[in-house]
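Justification of resources, computational component.

The compute hours requested in this renewal are based largely on the per-chain cost of generating structure records like the one below. Each record pairs the submitted sequence with a full structure-token output. That output is archived, and it is also reused by downstream analysis tasks.
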Amino acid sequence: TRLGSASSSESLFFKNVYVDGDYLVLVLIDGTEVRISLKKEEPATLDDWVGNWKYDQQDIVITKSSDERCLINWYDQANAAYVQIPIDFVAETGEMTLSMPENRAIGGNYDSATGTGISYYLNLYTAAGSRVSPDPAQGTLIATFRLNEDKTAATATSADPENFYYFFARPYNWSTGKWGSSVFYMYCTDESKLVKTSGGQGESQNAKDWVGDWKSSYGTLSFSESGDKLVCHAVTSNFSDIPVEFSLNSDGTIQLVDTGYNGWFYTGGTADAPAYYYLYAYNGNDSVKISSGEVILKGTIAEDKGSITLTTGVPNATRILMYCGGVWGTKPQNWLATYNKVTE
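The structure output for this chain reads:
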């Protein structure tokens, strides 16, 4: 409304205006206070992204893999494998950006030595359901993830709204040569919300917490990092030179999953004479059959990082024994136990 010329020295709108700390306070004529922050909003940090999140009904974990990158992790129950999407952190804005990974590959448990396991590939679709295939070599930007002010929720917005609408992971089974159904999806729209449920597992999914020697009455285990795996040696066993590889889960646990050979694992050797070992599951003196995809060994680490506990997902199994080349392993004869950290 046009008010015309003002002849009074009194404000028609404000009773008072003053600065209170980081806020500009406007007191209206009726006494209402309007507080405006003068503090510049700091961009989100890498640690703000690390944690447990939920998208729709899907539980995911975001872990820190470097100072410039995180991983979106979730578990495919049907295939007993973890899927991981790498996203880049932009420090200037506090945002995460998702680009098409090389060869569209985003995790799984594929074993190149045996040609078995599951690989996951990123698929990108339009709103009409048509597949989009950007060139991975170009690193095509797919979506930008932004945190809200209180860091409790994030939005994934499409980098190309006319073409990029949602993405999902699709598994490929190398053993059968067949594709499976999608196991994870996310829309790239302003309504697509990630909601934070708790704090995260820290850098590199706590891999370094596992590294070192651990001792129980059954023997001593030694863990070391090797790429995305944790390699375990039974240092007090007659098989101390055999590397037992555990996968590191997004919740900070580790696991060893049967790939379809009833506990039979490839360890090296030559093309003409490959080397294998077995992990046998027993209940008392009775052998228990191990099925493909079962978690033979799973490890959890105590909150104080001073001990680890190995359990099994094989039904009815009470002990796990190691066997190689016609010889039984010595300590640890039974892997299922709680091991304490060996300190100098």
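Residues 229 and 247 are 5 Å apart (CA to CA). The chain has two helices and 30 strands.
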